[in-house]
Write a structure and sequence with these properties.
Number of strands: 7
Bound molecules: S-adenosylmethionine
Structural class: alpha/beta
Strand content: 15-25%
CATH class of the largest domain: Alpha Beta
Largest sheet: 7 strands, mixed
Strand order of the largest sheet: 3-2-1-4-5-7-6
Number of domains: 2
Order of helices and strands: HHHEHEHEEHEHHEE
Length: 241
């Protein structure tokens, strides 16, 4: 499951017994050797599909994988926001070596309360939706909406909700139940759940928040062919809210 040099079982257990933020601080030095880092075979086609942009923000940027993929297309700059100091420290090192010349900025902040001030024409987020609780989704959507300029777009990948006919759905529900049980008996909580931000539910929620939502299929092939790309555009001529 992990590359050589990745975390040991005990290190992962220690992470899972910490808060979400502290857990990532602990995992940060070895995070890039885990399957939790979004792979370049997803990030590279998405970055190419997006093409040139002025300013982007990567919400929950982690060690900067998506920022590195997007940087060659950035005309003005790219910002990463993450709550984990440890992950941002690794991102800073990774981005020093990343292709492209656009300025990079890293901000330590909870994305649920971050105000991007309508400064960005592109927002992305990868591999982090499992950390956003259902009751936190409106705050996350607000962050995206407020970060984008009118006409700006939020781009991310997801999958179709498999529903209870699929064994994977039951496995994911069992995992989620185990995390809920863990959080009942262990404090601080560690939040990571599967089957969040799935299509079509996420499209309906973003539409309700005021985005124009478009689904793009067929960007990936082979074992990734079920991955969907979602583009949620903040309507032009709309400010604030
Ligand atoms: C699985 S990692 C994904 C990192 C990176 N986006 C990637 O795809 O490789 C999840 C990241 O989300 C961050 N995170 C979780 N909850 C957050 C929050 N509320 N605000 C900011 N960052 C958060 C964690 O610190 C971690 O770096």
């Amino acid at each position: 499951m992990f590359e050589p040099g990745g975390p040991t079982f005990f290190e992962l257990a220690e992470q899972a017994l910490s808060s979400t933020r502290k857990g990532y601080d602990l995992l940060a030095p070895k995070f890039d050797k885990t399957p939790f880092r979004t792979p370049d075979e997803i990030l590279a086609p998405v970055a190419e599909w997006i093409g040139d942009f002025d300013r982007a923000v990567d919400l929950c940027c982690g060690t900067g994988a998506a920022m590195a993929a997007l940087r060659p297309y950035a005309l003005e700059g790219i910002t990463g926001v993450d709550v984990s100091e440890g992950m941002l420290a690794v991102a800073a090192g990774n981005l020093r070596e990343a292709a492209g010349t656009a300025p990079v900025r890293l901000i330590e902040h909870d994305v649920l309360t971050w105000d991007g001030g309508e400064a960005y024409d592109l927002a992305v987020s990868f591999g982090a939706f499992g950390h956003i609780l259902k009751q936190e989704e409106p705050a996350f959507f607000d962050t995206v909406y407020k970060a984008l300029r009118p006409g700006g777009r939020f781009v991310f990948v997801t999958g179709r909700n498999p529903g209870p006919v699929h064994p994977g759905w039951w496995a994911a529900r069992a995992f989620n139940a185990a995390i809920h049980a863990r959080n009942l008996v262990i404090s601080p909580p560690f939040h990571m759940y599967y089957l969040t931000f799935m299509w079509p539910e996420i499209g309906d929620k973003l539409t309700a928040r005021g985005f124009d939502v478009r689904l793009h299929e067929g960007l990936f092939e082979g074992r990734l062919e079920r991955v969907l790309l979602v583009e949620a555009v903040k309507p032009d001529g709309v400010r604030g809210e």
